[in-house]
Design goal:
The structure holds two protein chains of two kinds. Chain A is α+β, with helices and mostly antiparallel strands. Chain A has four helices and six strands. Classes of the chains: A alpha+beta, B alpha+beta. Bound molecules: zinc ion.
Amino acid sequence: MGKGTHKTLIALVVLLVIIIIWALVQRSGPPSVATDPAGAEVLIYLATRDGTSLVPVKRIVDVEKVSPQGLIEELLKGPRPGEPWVLPLPANTRLQSVAVVDRVAYVDLSEEMIEFHPGGTTGELLTVYAVVNTLAQLPEVELVQIFVGGRELETLMGHLDLRTPLEPDFSLVIEEH
Amino acid sequence: MGGGHNAVLDEDCDFYVGGNPFLSSKNLSGRVKGLIETEGWSLMRTGRAALVLAVILLFFIPGGPASATQVYFNGRALSSDVAPVVVDGHVLLPVRSLASAIGMSLTWEPGAGRIEIQRQDKHIVMHINSREAQLNGEPHQLRAAPQLKDDRILAPLTFLAEALELTMRWDMETAALHLSDATIVVSEILLCEEEGRTRLDVLTNTPVAYDTILLADPHRIVVDVHGAKLGVPPGEQPVAAGVARCLRVGQFGPDVVRVVVELNAPVGYEAFAREEEPGVALLLNHAVDSLSWRDTDEGGELFIVVPPTAPYEIWRLVEPDRVVIDVFHASLNAKDRTILLGGELVKQVRASQFLPNVVRVVLDVNGPVEAKAFRQEGGVAIQLGPPPPIDLELAEIEPGDEPVALIKEPDPDFPSLPGVKEVAEKTGKGLRVILDPGHGGLDPGALGPSGSKEKDVVLDISLRLRDLLAAVGCEVYMTRDEDRYVEFPERVRLAKEGKGDVFLSIHANAFRFQEACGTETFYHPDKQSSRLLAEALQTSLMKELGRTDRGVKTRRDLYVLRESSIPTALVEVAFINHPDEEKLLLDPEFRQRCAQALFEGLSHYFRERAGRSLGPVPEILPDAGENPAAAASEG
Ligand SMILES: [Zn+2]
């Protein structure tokens, strides 16, 4: 094996390494939004105007906002101008606190959640699962229990049993577009 | 409504006499309503009866008799020739008289039947008998065509209101239609003390229509100002004014400003239209927090915990002997309302909400006593001792005083069911149905745009259904048959124990946006017979009501479905916050059809499940239109 062959082999290996690196870079494509330091992609659950379904809507938020608090704050911002969806919570509802313990998120919303709520089984379901589904996209959250004004609730508007934490409900969800 | 039933509302009817009836009548109704809500007892029925009556007054009575609807614009009463007219179930307004009343220009071309309206930047073109219209040059499909009747040009109310951006509200209590420019602004909200009572003022730029509700858990009063926009920042602020502890304000829907006063105790209030400047004011009652008794050397002392400014009066009744203390502008908040003493002097002390604004404390005494009342820190003390040797002070009871009848206390028992009107074949004998009208009492459920409440319409539908089922011999249990708050565990108690063949929860639906409408039925997925029941009910509701079919849905998280151990369904008959469906729900004939559809659904279910049809819907009364509601009202 001559010196020339050896050099060719090194060149080939280098080329191969370059090709592999290039291929890897190609495969991962443009840097994913989830890892971009500028922002991460999350979903908030808004509703259709006729109150039949929830719709997962994409938002880019700061990476540090990918938290229970950040998600609820993003949800409460509601739809952007021109979006066909609606926020199924009273518009002036505020987040008081949220904590995750043993995979259960306990979220405490302000009194407006009840006082400015129009009622109805449909209204109540969409309100509750907009919150539950939005929080449950976080890997650390499996169940969600909703509090209002710091109080544990038997129900929000007289239909749903809110005494125990709820699982997310995807039967209410349709895909965007 | 058959095609030929055109009820023209009588414009000559003197329903209101002079002045501005809005201020006085609303004042009264607002006050009464607030007090009623506090009490949750018989007075509530007055409210229901008034609502039903107003619907009858406002809406069509087939073929004929008429009534007046007063129209207001920006809170001001308009002349009677602006009264709406109902044609084929559509509400039309005479535009010629409306034009001068609200300041719009009207061009009328009789030959072409062309109507042209200009108001500010809004331009409308309509044609008689045509449902094609134009709004600012854009084509627009009308739900009802404009009409020419008795030389009057009639145009559909909802379109006019939408096109001219007027807000519209039916007030069922005063049989009035309120139109307003959407520029009513809530400019200021104030809490202060007036003669020791907490007073809330909601200031607006023009007289307004409003509603108030007292809610529980936490106790709070909700004031809705209709047709208004919020001119102050929304938000929450803690306050310390008498019984009020927190004030919240926000925009509730596009045309309602909602003000919430959170309370330390559930107190009644008077709501009235402000006089000097426009707006709404509420005067809150004092809370009577507790009663306590202690023995003294003389005899004993009763202490009533109440704010120092609450006026009171002490007096006596004889045969049997009693001492009575009335505390005015007060609401009873004490948990223990009876103190059993069995003493030499006093047998017992009982407190009750005697009148919506008056707390009455009665001491049942053994013969004549000496009683003196005086203020102490934190309340009123009543000292009792043996009578003085010569009883100069004992009040003479005049014959007309009827002392015993004065002591009225709310009856906690269910009133007995009104009798079944007609005996049909007993096809339902032995079948036990539990009917559960949603919400009630302090929980109004969903609200309609004109102020109607879910709790009222679902109770009425349930009572109608009860009468139909009872007529064929079913045994019917009602979780409530009057306007009262029922806790969840009590609602499902029987069904949880497995008593009854069917549990049916009846609701009216709502969503934040008015696009939502239609009928849907829920059941628990683990229960096959519940599915059969839900499907039978939904199919029947669709057939009879013909609203949008939102389907039969499974849910594990609805309270009554989860807790009941018998076949159970929850129906949402229609959306009360959808303007058209609210109008339907306020129509007794529609509610009767809901009851009939549910009857047929149950009949189908019993046939599938037990091979027992309930047979045809029994004929009850020709005027079933009002009667069950009236029965509910009078109990
Ligand atoms: Zn309901």
